[in-house]
Structure formats: structure tokens, C-alpha cells
Input
Amino acid sequence: MTLLHEPDFGTPASRSAESVEVLIDGVAVQVPAGTSVMRAAAEAGMTVPKLCATDSLQPFGSCRLCLVEIDGKKGTPASCTTPCEPGMSVRTQTPRLEKLRRGVMELYISDHPLDCLTCPANGDCELQDMAGVVGLRDVRFGSDGANHLDEPTDASNPYFSFDGSKCIVCSRCVRACDEVQGTLALTIEGRGFDSKVSPGGRDFLSSECVSCGACVQACPTSTLEEKSVIDLGMPTRTVLTTCAYCGVGCSFKAELRGDELVRMVPEKAGGANEGHSCVKGRFAWGYATHADRVTVPMVRESIDDPWREASWEEALTYAAERLRDVQARHGVDSIGGITSSRCTNEEVFVVQKMVRAAFGTNNVDTCARVCHSPTGYGLKQTFGTSAGTQDFKSVAESDVIMVIGANPTDAHPVFGSRMKRRLREGAHLIVVDPRKTDLVRSPHIEADYHLPLQPGTNVAVINAMGHVVATEGLIDREFVSERCDPVSFAAWEEFIRGEENSPEAAERSSGVPAGEIRAAARLYAAGPNSAIYYGLGVTEHSQGSTMVMAMANLAMATGNIGRDGVGVNPLRGQNNVQGSCDMGSFPHELPGYRHVSDDVVREQFEALWGVTIQQEPGLRIPNMLDAAVTGEFRALFIQGEDIAQSDPNTRHVEAALSAMDLVIVQDLFLNETARFAHVFLPGTSFLEKDGTFTNAERRINRVRPVMSSRTGKAEWEVVCDLATALGYPMHYDSASQIMDEIAELTPTFAGVSFDLLDQVGSVQWPCNADHPLGTPIMHVDGFVRGMGAFQVTPFVPTEERSTRRFPLLLTTGRILSQYNVGAQTRRTANVTWHDEDVIDIHESDAEMRGITDGSWVTLASRVGSTVMRARITDRVPPGVVYTTFHYPESGANVVTTEYSDWATNCPEYKVTAVEVSPTLAAPDWASSSPAAVMR
Amino acid sequence: MRIETLTRMAQEIAVNNGVFPEDEATRRVADHLRSFWTPAMRRDFTAYVTEHPDAVDPVVRAALES
Output
């Protein structure tokens, strides 16, 4: 399509149910009560000139360009700050208004460079547009007097620049930082003529700015401009697509000149993000064209041989022959595949189909195994379906928000901004986390309760909250009796009232004062709308599944399910975690979470696919790796995952990969896992894909090809070709056809098609005959399983304990600027903010060990050791250390262990007993420059 | 797979169901093994437990026999 300009109504929409009628230039307009005159006029098609107003921000009334006349009112009020009143008669164009507006514009232009023809924003500048709209023909005030034309440009940020000479001090950037992003990094410094936008510090890069891009988007001039626009020029066409980073799944307008991507702009109509973005989605897409991309297939006999380029046919034939050879020698179940949450639903679907139909085994698993598999298990046991309950918008109705084991301002930043907006409006906040995350205390945000529990004691704390609810008369008896299974509730109530679940007992294991647990539980139960949001700090534990069920118990017991503002909500790490699970990636489930032993379901797939599907579950990823070490599992197809960096106990993973006869990697880059591969099949970036992603709120969004595939093939085509080479012909004309097959076989996707998504933008599953436009909130009238099932959730301490040799507990996570194993973000300018992983350690632990800030230290556990720099911080409590796993050079997973969730084998990344000790020797990789590390 | 791994996994499943009466715990452990373990994992583990009945929790043993 041509460049898409989304309409700007000037002020936000009113959510009032009442409506008022006003006359605008003689035309009757019905709008919700509270709507501004400016918005009412825009909705009626009569645009009022404006500069400081935009509909993502509250009205400000500073530019004086949107003046109108209103019958019966004195003067010329600003239409942005004037709400419509019943019967109001407004005139937006009169000679008096025209004169006033021209005068205002004259003043603006008198202190603005007249370089429109060479300005990067030429053609996309609201100041330029307004000069035309008001009919400005001359400027009486010369530029000889005091002005701002020599204001310097701040180009410190790698992605955008700030040209002070072009600033009209409309405060849109400051307000966007405050209202949309919630970082409050910008301010207006000085008074009157000296007023200017300031990032607070020396420059943007050294300020609190998080580079979300909201200020750039809000700027009506070229003051804040993407450097890519300055370098390449204005884009001329738009492709609507979806970000490929975290589980928020933001909608973006990819704006191009010809086939060259110029910038990614968040789409206002996007259901997940509603026009907001973060530094990754907005700016960190350069990896897609990075020189490291491998775009031709490669093969080798042995992992000790050099790679050799091959044709597609040669590579796929070679892969197929070796797969069949392994099966002939070691049995049909000696091979398997791994799907990726970075790939589309369609790409994932064909991989699990290839494994089940062409390989003939259920040995297929997905990277959700190592992140949110306990969510799937726990929510299915309690609610009946493996997904979060709410849409993201729901948080705006929450009165109490409990964040457990999640750091949304870093890992899910656009949702974090939504949450902070609600918190600034007065919602209460409980943070359950060993670390002092930004949410605990940041500008205008302070948690009512921070429960800094010892890693590994989640279940003790949440059970204690359940105990308080049950013993203090806080159970919502009406909800429970109407909506939940009475037998399971009675068993839970008896269990949770036990002394072993009291806050005092939890204090002994978790270190959190009983009084704090009691107070937090009372706050959550009081609501009235209380919501739980959680992340991998819940799931990546030996009791990850137990914790998910315990949270669901608490939500059901207090009636916090089935309406806006409540619920139990997993924040998914990667964009398509939900989708990859939906698509039948688990070894025990066909698409739609139906067990392979279900004859009726299996027969449906067998009839369409023309094969017999095994009725027994296959191997999970950790099982595959273990079986590889013992020689039973011999070949693996890996789609878009880097298990040699992301999975726990690197030495074990490498031993397993080394032991296999055949490893096939389908990826953008020669990643760590590719060191052990025999076949490399080049993949496509999200900018080349055609398909869908399903985000953490079950929202199915279109991913549209922004540029042609650099490999010449779609990833799903390659998988189909491999299946065909294996003797199982798989063919689709398009990704759309794959979705049609998904819809035919998966009841929750029955109504989904590319046509529908192209018409309505996105839908949240279930999307079927009963819910043709999807289901934003689940379990509204009843649980998917009928009655909600309480589960008894005993606290069982992990066997991973701190010892005299390894006295500290390590927990791992991610930071804002980097993503997962860093394969994408390390190949962008995001390394400006984080060019190596460091270990966070409390001052007292550091001092005891003679560790200074920034010094090299050895991080060691019982399974391995690595070297990285120390950062002394009070974000971690004494006894706990924290690091990220974005860089293979330091390889945090060298130290993580084989312990895992009892129900799903999700690794226990969040609890590893370690020691940190000073080391004099810097590692070899440390001599590389950040640019060299950026690979 | 290594017997040590299978034993640890089975023991963890049993411990996390240890709060239930023995027959209920046995049923739950058996269901879990049937739902999530491959036939080869169950076969190898059953063979090991048959030879080493004291190596696992009685609930695990009973679950394999059920």
C-alpha cells in the first residue's frame, strides 16, 4: 500500500457511555460525553489546526492554534481542552480565527529554520502542514533578534537525533515520555523564551531515556527524527506487520522506499500496543540485513569439517537420506525436531506435521519447554486451557496488580508502560521477586508491597497468601460455589488452611516477613479487581507448574477471573510462544492442546494427513538431549533456536549435540548450535515472513513480507521440501493455505483465516462460530473445562541448595536492550547499552570476597564456570546474584543445572547455587572491541 | 535415557503428589507417566525398578505396576 497515514483526532477518545450532541460548523455531531471539541470536529471531518495536540496524549492547550468560537462563550477557547457540552454550537473557521491562527504561525515560523526543501521531515512535518492550512504567506518578524536557530543537535542516541533549532517547544515529546512510556526522562528546562526540551542529563544517551521512540513519533517537526530517515529520506509505502521480539507482539507499520526499509513505526490501530513501541521493535531490526546472514544452504559430513555451500536440492536430499539412514539403523524414534517461538504459526505447524507425519514420531518439542511449559500445564489443570485469561487492555481496569517473577519494564516494555499508566492512576502494586526491579520504585511508581523472597520459594509465599484468604474469611464464596468444582475446592481449602501453609511458615523458608505476606494477601483479596501478571520467575523452577496452579487457585478463591481487570496472565518471553504451543509443538499434544492418545482427535489428523500418528507421547527437549548422550537419540532438526546457548548446563547440551549423527539447523545465522550441525538451512527474518504470530494475550496478528526472502524460499517451503524428500509429499501454495488447515483441525482456530485477519486486523482465540471475532477475556461465563478445578499445591523445596562451596543463589533474566540469546539484538546498535553480560552482586557479598565494581570475577557452580564482570548493586539482596544470558562469550548457562520442573521438565534457571570469586585474568573474548563482539 | 535421570524425574513427580493419600498419589503418578513419558522411558524405567525395587518411592513402584 502507499504510505499509511493514520488519522489523528487530536485528543484521546472518551470512554463514557453517555453521549452528547453538538453543532460543529452547523453540522450535528454525536460524541461520547467528555469528548473534546477538537476530536468531535475531527470525527465530523472538520479538522481544526493543531500543533501541540495529538490523540495519544492528553490535551495541553499550549500552541493556541486550535482556537474556536463557541456561541455564548467569551473569547476563543482552545478546542483541545474544551469538552463538548450538549447543544454547544462551535465554529472552527471564521475571519477572526484565521487571523489569530496566522499570527500564531507567524511567531512560530519567525524562530524556525526555513530549510524545508532540505529538511529530513519535508513532506511529513506538521508545522509545514499548518503553515499551509492557516494560509501563512509572509512573516513580519525577521530573524535578526534573539532566536534558537543555532541550537545544537544531540546525535548521541544511535537511532534518532534531536535538532534543537527546529524545536517549537510544544511538549509533545515530554508528554509522550510521561504519559505513553512512563519513564519521565524528558522535561522542559528554563522559562519563557529560554524554554527548551531537555533529557535531564548531558545528552539523550546518558539520560534516563529508554529509546522507546514515543518522543520521536510525537514530534510534529524534524526536531526528533530517526537517523534512518535522515540518511535515506522519507518512506513512500507501508506494509503492516508484527514485531518478532517479545510476547507483547506489537503491530508496526514497516515504512519503505522501494524495497528498502526506512523505519518501523508502531501502529495506533494495533490491538496489543495501540501505537507504542520499545527500543527493540522500533529500532533494532538491522540484524535482518546484517552481513552475518547466511543465505545459502550448507552441508558437511562431520562437525570437524568446514562448511560447504550446496543447492537446496542437494542439502535437502542429503538431510533426508541421513535422517532415513539414522532411522534405519536406530529406529523410527531415534530422531526428532524442535520448533521455534520466533517463527510463525504456519512455520511451526509444518515442522510438527513433518515430525509426526514424515519422521513418523512424536519427538517434537518447542523452546517453550524451557520457558512457559509450566503455564500450559498449570492453567490447563485449573482453568482447562493453556493460555492467559485477559487482553492487555484489561490492566486499565485493575485495582490491584500483582507482578510475580516478571520484569515487564525490561522484558515486555510496551505492556510495562500500560501497567505503569494504570499504577500512576492509583492502582495498587504487589511485586513478588527476589530482585528490586524497576517496578518496585521508579518515578511516580512505588510498590505497596515488595516481597523479596528467596529464589525457589514462590509456592511457599503464594500458598501463604491463599492461607490468609482462607483463614480470614476473604474467599469469594459466591464465585466459588457458582463457578468452581466443589470437591476440588473443599480439598484445597482443607489443605491451604494447614499450619504448614501459614505466612509464619512461609517466612521461615522464603525470608519474607509474615506480616508483609498477610498484608499483601489482604490487599489482593480486597481488589475489587485484582490481576496477576507473571513471568519466567514463576515457571523456571522445580515447582514451576505447582506455582502456576497455586496462582490460579488464589485467583479463583477470590473471584478474580472472567472479567476486565482480573485474571492470571503469563508474560511470554518470545513473540510466538503462545502460538508455537497452540500449534501442537509439545510431544504429547496435537494442535489445540489435545493429547495424542485421544483416538477421535488423532483420527481427524490421520484422515487429513494420510498417515498413522503414534498414540504415545514423544521426547521432550531435555529427554532428547539425555537420550542423545546415551546413544538412543541420534538426529535432530532445529528450527530457529540456539539450544547450545539458551538451554541449561551447556556442557551437557554440547555433549548431546556432539553425540548425534545428524543435526540440522534452520536459522538466520551460524549460531552456537550450528557448531554441532551437519546441515544448515538458511532461514528468513520476520521482515521476509508471511504468516501469523500469536502473542501472550492469544492475539493472532498478521506477519506480512516487507521484503523478499533473501534465501529465495519461505521457511515453511523448505520444511515441506524436506518432508517431500523424506517420501511424505507436503505442499501448500501459500502460508494462507497452511492457516486454513490449522483452522480445519483446531477448534479454537476454526474461524481464523488470512482474509479475516486482513479485514479486522487481529483476533484473539478462541475464534470460531460462537466467537467469530475472537475472545478478548476468557472464562467469562464459565471455565473452558466447565467448573474451575482447584489443585492442592504442596511446597516442596528445590534440591538445589546453597552450600559452603557454593553459598550464593544465581538467578538469570534479560534486560531491555537485548533479547534472548542476543542473536538479533547483538547485531544492532543496541550493543550501545549492553555490550556484555555482567553479574549483579550485593555490596556485602562483594566486599566479603574482595570484589570491586567492574572487576572480572569467576562465576562457578557444580556443573561449570565462566568469567564476567561484577556490578555491585542493591537490586539484588545479599546471598543472591543475577546475570543475563545474551552473550555466548560469557555463556551464563555454563553454570545452570539439570534440575527442572517436576511436571514439565522446564529447567530451573532461577535457582543455581554458585560462588563468585575475584579473578585477575580477563577472558580472551574481553580483548575484542564491542564492535567485534557484535556478531 | 540415563536411569539416574528417569529415577530423579519419577521421584520428583511422586514427591509433588505426596500430599495425597497413597492410592490417589499412585493414580496421579501413573497418569503422569502415561501422559508425558515415552513408551521407551517407561519400559526402561520399569525394567530398572523391577530389578531395584528399593531404589524408588513405593508410590512410584505402585504406579508402574498399575
Summary: Residues 929-935 of chain A have pLDDT under 50 and may be disordered.
